[in-house]
Design goal:
This protein is mainly β. It has helices at residues 2-6, 84-93, 109-114; strands at 10-22, 28-40, 44-50, 55-60, 64-69, 74-79, 119-128, 131-139, 143-150, 157-164, 172-182, 198-200. It is globular, with a radius of gyration of 18 Å. This is DUF2092 domain-containing protein.
Length: 224
């Protein structure tokens, strides 16, 4: 799977994801989102994410990162020249944002996934969205994770689940991939601000709260 992903210059997909949070009363709550990813290696990316509290688009053209929040009709831009690998690191470390399925989008998927893995289990077959998959489970220092990989000539990841062992109640992140397409031509990775959109300074990214992983009412100390 890792070799197959790395060899694909252009990839597009749709996804459904669930991110679990745990309250201080030890209740698990889930945040469900859907979106799309279009990737053109080595340095082009467009993603969307939509949920009950967010509707965002992230565009990277190899030089400029643009993050647009539809709800506020506002966007931020920052110069982040380099590859998608560098973008993933910058989003996480500098902007405190995650790309959907970032572990599966880099140029070295195997290294990203297998770091600190101590145990591997082959769990046979499973079926995701009607597609028969190989089901594998892994244990690492801080996480357990599972992956379902499509059988056949295009071994793409159909489902990916991460369990955080070091967090109370072991919350999970899961991502189910649909509409997988590889090959073909590259899409349009230019960002065109919608009419009337407000440009914010990159340091004001927090103003676009809808680009965060959690809605305000999930945050500690929120009024609701």
């Amino acid at each position: 799977m890792s070799d197959y992903l790395a060899s694909q210059k252009n990839i597009s997909l749709s996804y459904d994801s669930v991110f679990e949070v745990v309250t201080d009363q030890k209740q698990k709550l889930q945040v469900a989102t859907s979106g799309t990813v279009d990737l053109s290696r080595p340095d082009k990316l467009r993603t969307t994410r939509k949920s009950g509290f967010s509707d965002t688009e992230t565009v990277f053209d190899g030089k400029t990162l643009s993050i647009y929040g539809k709800g506020k009709n506002a966007y931020v831009q920052a110069e982040v020249p380099g590859t998608v690998d560098n973008l993933i690191d910058q989003l996480r470390d500098k902007f405190h944002r995650q790309l959907p399925g970032a572990d599966l989008l880099g140029s070295n998927v195997y290294e990203a996934l297998m770091t600190d893995v101590t145990d591997v289990k082959d769990l046979g077959s499973g079926v995701i969205d009607g597609k028969e998959c190989d089901h594998l489970a892994f244990r690492a220092k801080d996480t357990d994770w599972q992956i379902w990989i499509a059988q056949g000539a295009a071994p793409y990841p159909c489902r990916y689940v991460i369990t955080s062992k070091t967090v109370d109640q072991a919350p999970e992140f899961s991502m189910t991939i649909r509409d997988w397409k590889a090959g073909g031509g590259a899409g349009d990775f230019s960002f065109k601000p919608p009419a009337g959109a407000t440009k914010l300074d990159a340091k004001d990214l927090e103003t676009l709260k809808e680009t965060s992983d959690l809605p305000e009412n999930y945050r500690i100390g929120a009024a609701e």
